[in-house]
Specification:
about 400 residues, Rossmann fold, 19 helices, six-stranded mixed β-sheet, about 15% strand, alpha/beta, five-stranded parallel β-sheet
């Protein structure tokens, strides 16, 4: 445990400075992220530099302190109050609004509350309706390749980015942690967010998504394979998306006569969870598994999106004629980047990529591959490592905020 703490303290989370900045600008910040992604660790690091109070709303002792929340929190209006697992206490939002407004009248307009939560949609709805104009939102993803410093991120790809999994002493310990994590979510966490869903059924559904990593969403097929109706299958998808465990990547539409694919693609967001759900326990097993290519694609997409500026929207592009781009990044300026993802040491763009680029006319064209070197191909296509493209996106983020 001591060794884990040493390693964890050495990993600087990329959003730390931006979180500090927002706390200096607005009364409340909501930090979203899946469980065990490092939200509490980051919040406690922030707290070291401020007069602060930490309350874990899963702790009976801390919840007891909030028996009279307006009185108790009002006593600590001079501190940054960190409320962990805030989704467990939605009744606090109207009280926080009143306390924020009272502090504003006294001249304190920033750095009052840091709210940590694991369920995006419901928490955004609750806080947005009550704290409009008083709150800023940030998302903490699991670890990325810039934070870990891996030049060839095979360990991060295999184990995923949850800190306890990535920093485990060996692959077996990492896999055990991820299996326990999945079980905990199914049996304890997910029931908090909606109607009771049998844990084994949801595990089968989650595993089915892992087998179909990066596939087009076909609710009818999923429902049929699960023995449920389409509405139930849609509800399962919505729940896993809301918990930041699954991503629906939407298709990019253009004003064209071409027949476009309209269904989203679905990815289990953390590659380590994909591998745990499919019982892939080491790199040799992964390299011989049918999910290899799509696991790498999903991993690259999540890594790139974790470092993309807030102003970037992500899509894929695909036509029925075979034109396809794995990832289209659209910036607020209108600039478009086309990203092809290849699990090959000598990558070459497919014809479908060239056809799609002719349709979209992207400003930049990249192929991300597992190597370290960057080099150009014809038609202004640049082959790059994952880490170098992540750094390019970070540079764009810095430039857009200046």
């Amino acid at each position: 445990m001591e060794q884990y703490s040493i390693f964890a303290s050495m990993i600087h989370r990329r959003i730390t400075e931006e979180l500090e900045k927002r706390l200096n600008e607005v009364p409340a910040v909501v930090l979203l992220g899946p469980r065990q992604s490092g939200k509490t660790t980051l919040a406690l690091e922030i707290a070291k530099n401020r007069t602060s109070l930490y309350l874990d709303l899963e702790s009976e002792q801390d919840r007891a302190k909030l028996a009279e929340p307006e009185f108790y929190l009002g006593m600590h209006s001079d501190k940054l109050v960190i409320l962990d697992e805030i989704h467990r206490a939605p009744d606090l939002f109207p009280i926080l609004r009143g306390l924020i407004d009272k502090s504003r009248r006294k001249g304190k307009r920033a750095g009052l509350y840091l709210l940590l939560g694991s369920a995006a949609l419901e928490l955004l709805k609750q806080s947005g309706e009550t704290l409009a104009g008083r709150v800023s939102y940030m998302e903490l993803d699991p670890l990325n390749v810039v934070e870990t410093g891996e030049s060839c991120p095979s360990n991060l790809w295999l184990r995923g980015g949850f800190p306890d999994s990535y920093l485990a002493s060996n692959d077996s310990a990492s896999l055990r942690w991820r299996r326990d994590f999945i079980r905990s979510y199914l049996e304890r966490d997910i029931p908090q967010f909606g109607p009771r869903i049998p844990a084994e059924r949801l595990r089968r559904f989650w595993t089915m998504l892992a087998h179909n990593q990066g596939g087009l969403l076909n609710r009818a097929s999923l429902a049929q394979n699960m023995g449920v109706d389409t509405k139930t299958a849609s509800r399962y998808i919505d729940l896993l998306v809301d918990l930041l465990l699954v991503r629906r990547l939407q298709p990019w539409f253009t004003n064209t006569r071409k027949r476009m694919v309209k269904a989203p693609r679905v990815y289990v967001r953390d590659s380590g969870l994909v591998h745990a759900l499919l019982s892939i326990d080491n790199m040799d097993s992964l390299l011989s598994h049918p999910v290899l290519g799509m696991s790498w694609e999903g991993f690259v997409i999540e890594q790139l999106l974790s470092v993309s500026p807030d102003c970037v929207d992500a899509f894929f592009y695909r036509t029925s004629a075979g034109a396809e781009i794995d990832l289209v990044l659209v910036f607020a300026s209108g600039s478009k980047w086309a990203v092809e993802i290849k699990r090959s040491g000598s990558p070459k763009p497919a014809k479908g990529f060239h056809f799609a680029c002719a349709d979209l006319c992207p400003d930049r064209k990249y192929i991300v591959y597992p190597g370290n070197e960057s080099f150009p191909l014809k038609d202004q296509v640049q082959v790059v490592s994952l880490k170098s493209l992540c750094r390019e996106l970070l540079n764009n983020s810095s430039n857009s905020s200046m």
